Every structure is written in C-alpha cells, then in structure tokens.
Amino acid sequence: MLIKSLKVDDFRNFTKKEIKFSAGLTVIVGDNATGKSNILEAIYLLATGKSFKAKLESEMIRYNSDIARISAKLRILNYDVDLTEENNPETLNTKSKMQNTSLEAVLTDGEVQIGEDSESIKKTQKKKLLVNGLPKRLIDFAGNLKVVLFGPWDLDLVTEAPSIRRRFLDEVLSQVDREYRRGVLLYEKGVRQRNKLLLRIRDEGIPRSQLLYWDKLLIKHGNYITEKRSEFIDFVNRTKDFKDRDYSLTYDLSTISEERLAKYANEEVYAGTTLVGPHRDDFVFEIRNTKYGSQDQSVIRNSNLEIRNSSPRDLARFGSRGEARMGVLWLKLAELLFVESVSGEKPVLLLDDIFSELDHEHRKIVLQVSENQQTIITTADPHYIEELTIPEEIINL
Length: 397
Prior knowledge:
This protein is an alpha+beta fold. It is 35% helix and 28% strand.
C-alpha cells in the first residue's frame, strides 16, 4: 500500500498544496505552525474518515472558506481469489496485483455559497467521502487506506481517561475489520437509545419491556467488540519487548450479557445510563524490569537502595515518563505488525514530530522500523534527519 500523492484545497492553513511521496521514506521539515501535522491529519482523514485532532470537522476548513477538499492517489495491493480450491486460507489460490485507487473527502459547514451572490446559499452535506469518484458511506470508506499514526499526544494513552484508550482500540480495529466498524456504530447508537429509555423508565414510569430490543442489539454487537479487542490485546502482548523492559497490557473488560444487565437493572434506572458493556472497557499498561534476569523474587541491594522486580508495575502510577514513552512506542510497533498481519498489507507509518520525545537508542529503533514500509515523518528540527538513512524525499514547508 502506497500513497503516491496528496492534494488539499482550503484545508487548515493551506489554500492549495500538492505533495508527492516516495515509496520509501519522506521527511517533511518545517517550523512550528507551518502545517506539518495538517498534512498527516489529511492523510489520516482519508484513512479513517475522521480527524485525529479536530473536535468539529468544520475546524479543518480554512478560515473564511466554505469547502475543503482532500484527495490522494494510492497504489493498493488487490487480491484475485481462485475459489476452485476449498475455502481455506492455506489452500486458496490467490493472485495479487497493485491497482490505482483515489480517495477524496469534501468538507463543508453544511452550507455552500452558489456564485457571487452572498444570499445564494445551498444546504449540503457536511462531509462527503468518495472512492474512485463514487460516494461511499463511512463504513465503506474507512480502511481503504491503512495507516499507523504516532505523535506526542499518544502519551495520553498511558495516563489519561479510559475513553482515550477505547478510542485507540476502535481506530485500530476499524481499519482492518468492516464488521467491527459496523458493530461500533450500531452499538453506540444502541447505547444512546437505551439510555433515553432508562431516563423515561425512571421519570415517566414506562415499562422495562421497551428495553428488550436494545438489550439484544447491545449484547450481539458488544460481544463482537469485546472479542476483537481481546484478540488485539493478546497480539500486542505477544510482541517482542524492548531490552530490559517487559511491557504488557491488561484488558479491563466490561462484559455485557442478559445476566449482567439484570444484575444492574435497578442501578441503571437510577443512574439513567447503561452501566455494563464495552463502552466501559479499559486497558492498563504494565511494566516489569528484566535487567537482572528472570529471578522474579530477587532483591538487588545497592547501598541503601533496594530494587524489587517481583511483579509488574502499573505504568501510569509507578512508571517514569521515559518508561511511558517506551510503552507507547512498544504499543505502536505492535499496532504496525497487527495491521499488516490482519490485512496482508503494510500500512503507511505516520510519525508526527516524535523524535524530541525519544532518546537516541529508541529513535534508532523507530528509524529501523521506518525502512520496512512507506513512512512519512514530520520534524521541526532538521538535525534529527542526520540520523536517518538518506530519505528518498525531503519536503520543506
């Protein structure tokens, strides 16, 4: 999977901008506020149908403009499957070839001026997504381009609210699993509708039987979401750790079932909200130092200092900022492997000004990984690219 070129019109700070990317490493260099992150945001929008930083999609439209257009030309690996064999991944005959694909997103604030007459306003979609010129729903648009994005804000995964970690899980899995995308959309709609009914049960006394349809919907899609999140976390935990550091994720899942919904029936009515299900999930980063070998119960004494490595530590509560950085880097590298493993395609790696957050040793790890697939790096400090294998493309903003 390769991005050949990106074109933006009236997007963020750009009036017009077209960028051609190499098949290997592209480095975008520029001072702060020149729009480096905006380029990665545009690529991410075409991959997921969403921004990684805008609260309102209209924020991505350039100031005093009505409409923003973002488009890219891709080369995507397409599989032709010979179904004469038994439907088994090990026996299927497949032929693969690269095909050209175009993706486009058109953003408005819901109104567009027609002609020069300021009073001629036309109502329009706030977001239109197209693949090869054909309009697509978000569920069919997302995942045509697969990316892994790593930026300084990802440190929030360790320390901030569970909603950030749930969103991360959804963003990863939605790129590689259309059924997961559909399940999340239906589940979130179901939670909203069920919560409205819970409030009416509490305040108006309507019968609980009106919950039955939504209970079944949440159980069906919630269990699929939980299953796929669990599979991803298991994959991450099998990923190789860094030297002297053993990282792991503990999945704190909220199972949804008829029994659990019945157990919390009274509490849910009182609270007016659904109290169980994957919208309450979380995961915890843990770390175990392995520098002193596998003697888990050992105590190493150095003067008055005792270092115990008997059990994992909660990284958010007991880890250093440096260990948190490494934990997120470990997770992102695992994400890269996961997307390739599930989709059969190498995702595009997007690195947004992360080198200032990493020491020399771990910058070296990232740079080695960047050689394995198309990688686009932004940096404000050109000294960092001195450590790189010579980039195939350097773009100065």
